[in-house]
């Protein structure tokens, strides 16, 4: 089990610089984020069948809505991530999820120092691999340093562990991984998106979060209680919202509803 360390505390009304918010590099502060006007407008169109619902009814409605998507091949994911995770301060680079490093888009691959495609919902949890569908869904695929991706492996998410070399603010132990503060909420909302999108009514497993670690190949990832804390303490920032828009407008044409409506996390779980 993970050695639990105290969850970071940061004032949600703190002011951060616009660059830090855009890149997701603010490791100690995050603003309170009201529902953006764009998301409110979506309530009259994209989310109209979900608004006003809670619990299983909300989850079911959102599943129907976000299942209407364009799928990508695993090869197409490379170019998609170069657009979704582009560094707003340097359009030639992407921002890596766990390290926060800005790195050339051309450094993608499998060598030391390269970035590759991290499955935030580990692809072995449900055995979907890199198959078109959950294995190529860019709502949970992110650029990450090859070595750090290997350290994360298929571990569940939880607080605690030892510092990850080359990735300040990240911690790991034998059964879990804790990402840096600035992307804790991002990780939580990606996991919960997957749990709503993939409900076992296609060729893939019913993906569900639970409140334990060491889930192995079961179609589960934990800890749900910690993920809920992370989503609340690290609300969506400009980088995450823009990423959601790019996926919707240019690639899959579906959205992560927990970025548009983070309050729906508590409404379902």
Automatic annotation (TrEMBL):
Entry keywords, A to Z: Endonuclease, Hydrolase, Nuclease, Signal
GO molecular function terms noted in the UniProt entry: endonuclease activity
Top-level taxon in the UniProt lineage: Bacteria
Region entry Disordered, spans: 157-178
Leader peptide range in chain numbering: 1-34
InterPro entries: Endonuclease-I, His-Me_finger_sf
Name assigned to this protein: Endonuclease
């Amino acid at each position: 089990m993970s050695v639990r360390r105290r969850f970071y505390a940061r004032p949600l009304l703190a002011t951060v610089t616009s660059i830090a918010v855009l890149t997701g590099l603010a490791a100690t502060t995050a603003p309170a984020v009201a529902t953006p006007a764009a998301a409110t407008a979506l309530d009259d169109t994209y989310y109209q069948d979900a608004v006003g619902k809670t619990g299983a009814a909300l989850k079911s409605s959102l599943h129907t809505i976000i299942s209407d998507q364009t799928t990508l091949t695993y090869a197409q994911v490379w170019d998609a991530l170069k657009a979704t995770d582009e560094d707003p301060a340097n359009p030639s680079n992407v921002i890596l999820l766990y390290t926060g490093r800005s790195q050339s888009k051309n450094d993608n691959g499998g060598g030391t120092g390269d970035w590759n495609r991290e499955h935030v919902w580990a692809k072995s949890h449900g055995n979907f691999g890199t198959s078109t569908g959950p294995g190529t869904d860019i709502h949970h695929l992110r650029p990450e340093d090859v070595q750090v991706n290997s350290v994360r492996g298929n571990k569940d998410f939880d607080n605690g562990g030892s510092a990850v070399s080359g990735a300040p603010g990240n911690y790991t132990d034998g059964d879990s991984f804790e990402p840096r503060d600035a992307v804790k909420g991002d990780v939580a909302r990606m996991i919960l998106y997957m749990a709503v999108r993939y409900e076992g009514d296609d060729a893939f497993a019913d993906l569900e979060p639970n409140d334990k670690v060491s889930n192995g190949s079961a179609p589960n990832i934990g800890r749900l209680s910690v993920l809920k804390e992370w989503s609340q303490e690290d609300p969506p920032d400009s980088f995450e919202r823009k990423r959601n828009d790019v996926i919707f407008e240019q690639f899959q044409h579906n959205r992560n509803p927990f970025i548009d409506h983070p309050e729906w996390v508590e409404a379902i779980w």
